[in-house]
Amino acid sequence: MSILVDKSSRVVVQGVTGKEGSFHTRSMREYGTHVVAGVSPGKGGTSFEGIPVFNSLASAVANTGADTSIIFVPPAFAADSIYEAIEDQLKVTVCVTDGIPIQEMMLIKQKLKESNTVLIGSNCPGLITPGEAKLGIMPSHIFKKGPIGVASRSGSLSYEVVFGLTERGIGQSTVVGVGGDGVKGTNFTDLLPMFEADPETEVIVLIGEIGGADEEQAAQYIKSKITKPVVSYIIGASAPSGKKMGHAGTIITHGKGTYQSKIHALQEAGVHLARTPLEVAEIVEEISKGKQLKSQAN
């Protein structure tokens, strides 16, 4: 099993004929993702490399049975694409687009509470279930099927951690890049129960960063609800005070969201803490020696 997507997911690409959409649609299909439709307003009735293109998401869903989407749409239109995915009751939608205004994301968060749609992002690298499906811009070749569930606020650091795991022969069940924005569709506390319920996932890895309260909230959830081992790496130990950081989610307010507060909360929850991205793989390997993780195919 896996969480969120697998080889049975029927994927529609919103913005399929744009520069980013077309490039990554090819990459996702090459990986094996079951792309059944694309959406580009004004280009309905055409096709993109054999994929039927529709003017609206509603038409794409009605004609192909798509249940999952990925959004490669410019910021000015990306929020509308998310609303379409919610209204058409897709199970999962992934929004890679950067630059959706925070006020708009707050309204989208409210809309999500009234639906069953899971939004990953915006401003994220996407998610991948190795060997089954990829939705996003992740470099496919570094992933390997296996028992480690990974959730990350940083795309590049998740690649580094996954590369370290794969080099040691340790695969991943599903890897989710939730994005670095302060307001996003899915947080760690949304993913932890999914990984806990997934029989294929035996160890959970959380990659966090300074700012916000995602890690502290995750620590509280882990302390009371998670029975599987959790390993975490938090970036920002040497971040200079008062300096503006790259991610919107790294804003520190009223002394909360600091590196120290996150480390303290995770330690209190019994999480195994790594000092570097590559140390995550070392810790997971030590856990696996004690736990005898299931061997996995390539």
From TrEMBL:
Keywords: Ligase, Nucleotide-binding, Tricarboxylic acid cycle
GO molecular function, one term: succinate-CoA ligase (GDP-forming) activity
UniProt key word Nucleotide-binding: yes
Record: residues binding substrate: Y159
Broad class of enzyme this protein falls into: ligase
Keyword hit for Nucleotide-binding: yes
GO CC, alphabetical: succinate-CoA ligase complex (ADP-forming)
Domain annotation CoA-binding: ranges: 4-100
Active site: H247 (tele-phosphohistidine intermediate)
Domain of life according to the entry: Bacteria
UniProt: CoA binding residues: T17, G18, K19, E20, K43, V96, T97, D98
One of the GO biological process terms: tricarboxylic acid cycle
One Pfam family from the record: Ligase_CoA
Summary of the function given for this chain in its UniProt record: Succinyl-CoA synthetase functions in the citric acid cycle (TCA), coupling the hydrolysis of succinyl-CoA to the synthesis of either ATP or GTP and thus represents the only step of substrate-level phosphorylation in the TCA. The alpha subunit of the enzyme binds the substrates coenzyme A and phosphate, while succinate binding and nucleotide specificity is provided by the beta subunit.
Family: Belongs to the succinate/malate CoA ligase alpha subunit family.
Name recorded for this polypeptide: Succinate--CoA ligase [ADP-forming] subunit alpha
Source organism of this protein record: Metallumcola ferriviriculae
Name of encoding gene: sucD
